[in-house]
């Protein structure tokens, strides 16, 4: 049997994937394949109706994910995944909506969309594959590159302080904030399940190995060395203050940091709409 | 065979579920995550070379796998899947 046929017939996640596009293009040991696996696993365990699921991605290596999922998916322009998802949410409040994109896409070019969607509490699950660089374009430094680490555009070490994404998301108003690494497959899947079931703006950061580019520049000779490193430096601390959870090459705090309730933009919009309609009716009657 | 595999003997532990372990050999890119993180060290690199020029994993022995499912989840390539074996049916067959 050909590999693709075997995959299509027997792999439990194949029904959520565009099997004809497999094997995928990501490099050996890239965390993106693991994120895709955890996402499909979450869909499966929640029995999500994939006809009611929309996934949006931006541009980058992880951006390819939209094209691998067998659901309505959009591989949109760089940095605009959340903007497009906002429109989708306003057009149809009943869909399950997820944005899966890169650290560069969501926090450099798309940074403003992120903070304002979080502030408005627009109902969507945002999953960021944080590989500490712009993988697709050759490994440039980005807003999440750890201090002192090496990239193609910081050959002598990075002197820019990186964003602490979980702190940023929490401060901007996200109702659910978690961080895992590609190593934490079970916990990441559980987090995705939780986020997909909750209303509002939910953010999950996944520290994802990019062995091919970031790894090589930072002395990881093989993909497995990046995974061993993630195992060594990650520390699970649920409820930890996200402002203190900065990522360094020596320590990565993971866990669930925020889980609160707050009215969503759509709920407030709906209420406002009914109120204004009533007012207009009264006015017209009088 | 890599040294790490040799250094880690199979751990005998109660099975979580009865499964048949499969690898889609030509999907494997050789990252070795499955071998490294299997909690009972059931896997090792095989001698085979696949279409990508890497050695896909194989079970050290038929009964080494305890069916925890970790390798299926951690494989970035969707190359591993577990086939559930219905133990009741197996018993029935024996009768
Ligand atoms: C408007 C625009 N600017 C720049 C680019 C070039 N570009 C493509 S991907 C990318 C960065 C991707 O980084 P990230 O989002 O972290 O994804 P990764 O490849 O690391 O998964 C850039 C700058 C583009 N495609 N469009
Ligand atoms: S360049 Fe990095 S992020 Fe992109 S596919 Fe390769 S390993 Fe993954
Ligand atoms: S399912 Fe995979 S990881 Fe778990 S025991 Fe079997 S071979 Fe090891
Ligand atoms: S985890 Fe998957 S790709 Fe990596 S060595 Fe195992 S089977 Fe191959
Ligand atoms: Mg990136």
Brief overview, please?
By secondary structure, chain A is of the alpha/beta class.
Topology of this structure?
The complex is a heterodimer of chains A (286) and B (95).
Chain A: H1 3-10, H2 32-46, E1 53-57, H3 65-68, E2 72-75, H4 81-91, E3 96-102, H5 103-109, H6 111-120, E4 124-130, H7 165-172, E5 176-181, H8 185-197, E6 201-207, H9 211-217, H10 223-233, E7 234-236, E8 252-259, H11 265-285
Helix pairs in contact in A: 2-8, 5-6, 6-7
Chain B: H1 3-7, E1 19-23, H2 33-37, E2 43-45, E3 57-59, H3 70-74, E4 80-84, H4 87-94
Antiparallel strand pairs in B: 1-4, 2-3
Bound molecules: thiamine diphosphate (TPP), iron/sulfur cluster (SF4) (3 copies) and magnesium ion.
Tags for this model:
heterodimer, A: 286 residues, eight-stranded mixed beta sheet, 11 helices, 16% strand, B: alpha+beta, Alpha-Beta Plaits, two-stranded antiparallel sheet, 4 strands, binds iron/sulfur cluster, binds magnesium ion
Please explain how this structure is put together:
The complex is a heterodimer of chains A (286) and B (95). Chain A is 40% helix and 16% strand. Chain A is of the alpha/beta class. Chain A has one domain (2-285): 3-Layer(aba) Sandwich (Rossmann fold). In chain A, strands 2-1-3-4-6-5-8-7 form an eight-stranded mixed sheet, with helices on both faces. In chain A, helix 2 (32-46) crosses helix 8 (185-197), helix 5 (103-109) packs across helix 6 and helix 6 (111-120) packs across helix 7 (165-172). The longest helix of chain A is centred in the last third of the chain and has 21 residues, at 265-285. In chain A, 50% of the residues are buried. Chain B is an alpha+beta fold. Helix content of chain B is 24%, strand content 17%. Chain B has helices at 3-7, 33-37, 70-74, 87-94; strands spanning 19-23, 43-45, 57-59, 80-84. Chain B has a two-stranded antiparallel sheet with strand order 1-4. In chain B, strands 2-3 form a two-stranded antiparallel sheet. The mean pLDDT of chain B is 90.
